[in-house]
Design a protein that fits this description.
single chain, 40% helix, 5% strand, 6 helices, mainly alpha, two-stranded antiparallel ribbon
């Protein structure tokens, strides 16, 4: 199972936006450059994020995007749902009458994958943008020490901001 790029890119961009919130509106070109994401794809995602009320846009020379809510109010699940990404671990729809094998029965491992899907969804509902921005030693986000790279804000002083 792999989470789609819409969800991954949207979460990365929103985390970048949260990190840089103190600098005022952030341009998508800056996020695209810092996160190595395609600008055209970000533009499409931010239309959806704005329509769902997760970000606000500011026009003009110092324009860009800002979060519509504080980072502690924005759950990762909200971001994923806003860009219409589905977390799917089973071959069928869990609520469908036609199950995994095209009939009314489930495959042998259906409950395993359905349970995984429920746990993933629960996890994304429990994590906020604030959790990504402020690492907490010993938290559920710090459980895996896959990387020894130090944690740092992606933002640098840009556009005359301190």
């Amino acid at each position: 199972m792999k989470l789609g790029t819409k969800a991954q890119y949207a979460v990365m961009a929103m985390a970048d936006l949260a990190f840089c919130a103190s600098q005022g509106p952030v341009r998508l070109t800056e996020i695209a450059q810092r996160q190595a994401l395609p600008l055209a794809y970000l533009e499409q995602l931010f239309v959806k994020l704005r329509k769902k009320g997760l970000v606000k846009s500011a026009r003009g020379y110092q324009g860009g995007y800002i979060l519509a809510h504080t980072p502690d109010q924005l759950k990762i699940s909200d971001i994923i749902q806003a860009v219409e990404e589905k977390i799917k671990t089973t071959r069928c729809s869990i609520k469908s009458e036609v199950r995994c094998q095209g009939k009314s029965t489930k495959c042998l491992t259906h409950d395993l994958w359905a349970g995984l899907e429920a746990n993933i969804e629960h996890y994304f509902r429990s994590v906020t943008l604030h959790d990504l921005c402020v690492p907490h030693p010993g938290s559920f986000l710090a459980v895996s020490s896959v990387s020894s790279v130090p944690f740092a804000s992606p933002c640098v002083a840009e556009r005359g901001h301190p």
